[in-house]
Amino acid sequence: MRAVIAGGGRGTRHGGLTRTAIGLAAVALTVGGCTLEDVDGDDETGGTARPSESSESSGASGSPEAPGAGGSGVSDVLPGLPAPDEARELLAGLTVAEPRPMTGYSRDAFSHWTSTDGCTTRQTVLIRDAEDVAVDDDCAPTSGSWRSAYDGETFEDPGDLDIDHIVPLANAWRSGADSWTDDRREELANDLQGPQLLAVSAASNRSKGDQSPDEWLPPAEDFHCTYAVAWTTVKDTYELTVTDTERDELTRLLDTCP
């Protein structure tokens, strides 16, 4: 049994209870007689240190668009992924610039996680990305199976997972988000309409930190194409800049796509 979460009227059914997650989506889960209990951990690490900058593990709003992944391809889970050819076109349109300074940066500038109708963004991503997930009356996953696309590891405790920002918040700050409004930064930090959030192992997420693809790539090479497509899409959506070396590496990665 797979959890299904979707936007624009698509939803997961969960013990006869339906919750709407940010703007367009109903979050629900088909449990089929499961007992629901609260076990949603919060292991987010804050601060500005690069080794942990993209690490996310507590909850917020929004509405994903695709069925839960579990053991299937992450491209079935991440919403808003274009085809590689389209991603190449998006990459060609990105502005190349030197990184902006980190002056004034704080994770608090990117309010997250937000919550809508009782479901946080973290909870929504965990349900979306799970196989056989059970949730409690507070929308917190209590059990299930999660496969981390970054390293291929499988987990059964949601507390072992971080919710990664594909484009880390500090990277976004250096790429133009330093001049955004608070609302725009909150949108990026909680974006479940685009391919920006993914449940992954805490170890892989914290190894990534706030590094760009020219500095760090997921150990699982079969995820490199999808990772490059997702990264490019988020940068395009939010009109964020890329560096020369970042663009070159994304070009190389997209050329590996089938």
UniProtKB/TrEMBL annotation:
Residues 38-83 are annotated as: Disordered. Coiled coil: none annotated. Transmembrane segments: none annotated. Keywords: Endonuclease, Hydrolase, Nuclease. Residues 46-67 have a biased composition (Low complexity). One of its GO terms (molecular function) is endonuclease activity. Residues 156-252 form the GmrSD restriction endonucleases C-terminal domain. This is HNH endonuclease. It comes from Streptomyces hainanensis.
